[in-house]
Design brief:
The chain is of the alpha/beta class. 46% of the residues lie in helices and 12% in strands. A seven-stranded parallel β-sheet has the order 1-2-3-4-5-6-7, with helices on both faces. Helix 5 runs parallel beside helix 6 and helix 10 packs across helix 11.
């Protein structure tokens, strides 16, 4: 029933049985689309191997269904070490992409997008990414932007949608994608307001909401409802970003794609529709975006 554009088995640190259980649950719900998202230049092959190993544990009749459901992306998240080694890492990323697209295995060829990549200016030294403002002098900011542009151009070269990570960097993100001129993809885990949404929508981008929308405080609910209703029917997506951003009532726990139903319920209520109707809408948008 539910679509899920972010299907992070690569970073789920669960037991093997937990990964299998998630796949079984999604198959039982007739999930249309799940995507395993890349964040490192050299992680595509290992993620594909992990997914294949997980699928092989499923009952035989479910294995082909799982392979039909799952797609991959590959990209470089803007970590300081990646920014510093950006020219080397872009070469590795492109070679991994070429290897997958030229693979004799049809499952390895299932590359739906490039990403996630972009800009992150949220300073959280105690967080999982340990991101410190002191690490970002002008040279680092410039390098981060160059890494962003290089990946946008790579997405254009291979005619792939881009999955854009943008946190506390709306104006810079908008300027870079506008100047680069490749407008095909998703502003994922959207965390900005209505005005910023207009910028990206006017360029032709999709807007994707995660479980974070369910954290909206009562004082900001009217603004969130206005934002969710402003997004056109043909540009809205929902996602999990597992293992992060578990929706209410599971906030603070490890997220899995199975929990995306709570995000659908929240967004559907705000848009005065049903979760089933919203899921059908997202399915169609996924088909259009990824040309499925």
């Amino acid at each position: 029933m539910f679509s899920d554009t972010h299907f992070h088995f690569n970073i789920l640190r669960e037991e093997e049985t937990s990964r299998v259980d998630v796949l079984k649950s999604l198959l039982a719900r007739n999930t249309f689309f799940g995507q395993d998202i890349g964040t490192h230049c050299d992680d595509l092959a290992s993620r594909q191997k992990l997914m294949e190993d997980t699928i092989s544990i499923l009952p035989q009749e479910d294995q082909s269904k799982a392979k039909n459901m799952i797609w991959f992306s590959t990209g470089i998240w803007p970590a300081p070490e990646a920014i510093n080694e950006r020219h080397k890492q872009i070469k590795i990323l492109e070679q991994e992409l070429i290897n997958a697209l030229n693979s004799p295995d049809p499952f390895h060829k299932k590359i739906a997008a490039l990403g996630e990549f972009g800009l992150d200016h949220h300073w959280n030294p105690s967080g999982a990414d340990g991101r410190c403002e002191s690490d970002f002098d002008q040279e680092m900011f410039d390098g981060e932007q160059e890494l962003f542009v290089m990946q946008l151009k790579l997405a254009e070269k291979y005619k792939l949608p881009a999955i854009i990570h943008s946190r506390d960097a709306a104006q810079q993100t908008y300027r870079i994608i506008k100047d680069t001129g490749y407008h095909n993809g998703i502003i994922h885990c959207y965390s900005y307001g209505l005005e910023e949404a207009k910028w990206f929508l006017d360029l032709g981008w999709y807007i994707s909401f995660s479980g974070a929308v369910t954290y909206t405080k009562k004082s900001k609910m009217d603004a969130m409802t206005e934002l969710l209703n402003y997004i056109p029917k043909d540009r809205i997506l929902l996602e999990t970003d597992a293992p992060y951003l578990a929706p209410v009532p599971h906030r603070g726990k490890s997220n899995t794609p199975v929990l995306v139903e709570h995000t659908y319920d929240f967004v559907a209520s705000a848009r005065n529709t049903t979760a089933t109707e919203l899921s059908d809408l997202v399915d169609q948008n996924i088909k259009n975006l990824f040309k499925l």
